[in-house]
Write a structure and sequence with these properties.
Layout: E1 7-12, E2 15-24, H1 28-45, H2 50-66, H3 68-79, H4 83-100, E3 109-113, E4 120-127, E5 130-135, H5 142-153, E6 157-162, H6 167-178, E7 186-188, H7 193-202, E8 205-209, H8 212-225, E9 229-232, E10 237-241, H9 247-259, E11 269-275, H10 279-291, H11 311-321, E12 325-328, E13 345-348, E14 365-371, H12 374-382, E15 386-387, E16 389-393, H13 397-404, E17 411-414, E18 430-431, E19 434-435, H14 441-447, E20 449-456
Parallel strand pairs: 5-6, 5-8, 6-7, 8-9, 10-11, 10-16, 11-14, 13-14, 16-17
Antiparallel strand pairs: 1-2, 3-4, 4-20, 9-19, 12-13, 15-18
Length: 462
Amino acid sequence: MTATPSTLVSRNPADPDDVLLRISAPGPRAATDSVERARAAQTAWLPAGAAARSAALGAVAAAVEAAADELAALAVREVGKPLTEARAEVARTAAVWRYYAQAPYEPTGTVHETAAGPGLLLTRRRPHGVAGLITPWNFPFAIPSWKSAPALAAGNTVVLKPAPEATACAQKLAEIVQGALPEGVFTVLPGGAAEGAALVDAADAVSFTGSTAAGRTVTRAASARGIPVQAEMGGLNAAIVLPDADIARAAAHIAAAIAGYAGQKCTATSRVIAVGAALGPLREALAEALRAVPVGDPADAATVCGPLISAAARDRVAEAASGLRVLAGGAGPEGHGPGWYASPTLVEQAPHDHRLLREEVFGPLAALLPADDLAHAVRIANAVPYGLVTSVHTAGLDTALAGLDRLDTGMIRINAPSTGVDFHLPFGGTKASSHGPREQGRAALEFYTASRTYTLCPVGAI
């Protein structure tokens, strides 16, 4: 019996009756075919040289900037990203392509003297071939770009499998990128789990961003094949507030990290740890800051917290807050139409084994937790399966630095929200948050290439 293709449906989270796209998933064979075409294209893409690759990536950056308004509006409509954040994501996307446009000119190896006798020893980094990229819906342009651009700069070709919820955004990005690159160098493969699994089975290297469960499946499959794999997965990020912090400023930063884009970021804050005397003032200030967060239509530039990506995502937020003492939020906002909205919510008195302290909810919800001192706060921050990012709020950097090395997270931000990415630096976490080499910056170029060692001896020397 021939399997019936599944249907991919992308809806506007602010108005679920607004269907952007309805297509049949192409099936696993399409993944294999895409990789085969990309592998054929790679044989010409790499020898084209640094100038060709640099010019192509620079042209993508320029095209992204030219289409900025259209791209931002599409992100608002397809994934419910608030307009101001959508514009910022598009600007970052262009900056990522421009940053990596310089990478083809970077050195790809080193020269060494031999231990004895004439000759040279060389190290050289070479591309893997076809990079299979599996990306989420929450940053529909930036994440595909910060995976694709370094892969392409290093001489790989790319097959991108986006989340079904962001298929229209991925297709628009592909239209822009393909306009600057030779045929077959960049391909978008729509689909779901079946297409993603087939891509992992066919590609020469795999980069994944998404849920922890899916990421573990991807890493197991890629590792079994012996191909390079990196996976960015969940987060259960903490904000630590010391008594000497500027409480109002800290509350504003943390509220933004809880509620921005309805908490749908792997770097969002979901645990707020108040040290000692900071607890009372922070409880009041943070609750007030969350109540003041503008919730509503993502097409409104003033909106900070728009809808969640689906009804199921909205319901998970309500379920996670159930039974806890609510300091702010806790009920669905009124008057925002038919979309999947949830109020920015702060709770306290969560038992240590509560799901909110063990699982990533991925919504505008955080738990307030007390700590006796910095050492206690660090223990609380570390006592979860994840370790992506921690923010620390204090006026005394000496105090913060004393505890930073004990935080088991990949990124630490001082007096800043936990959200925010510097694309020219390594990005990643510890424990269940990340697997394999880091993303972004020069770390990405290293992931998308393999080091080779060459021994050059004069004729007759051996």
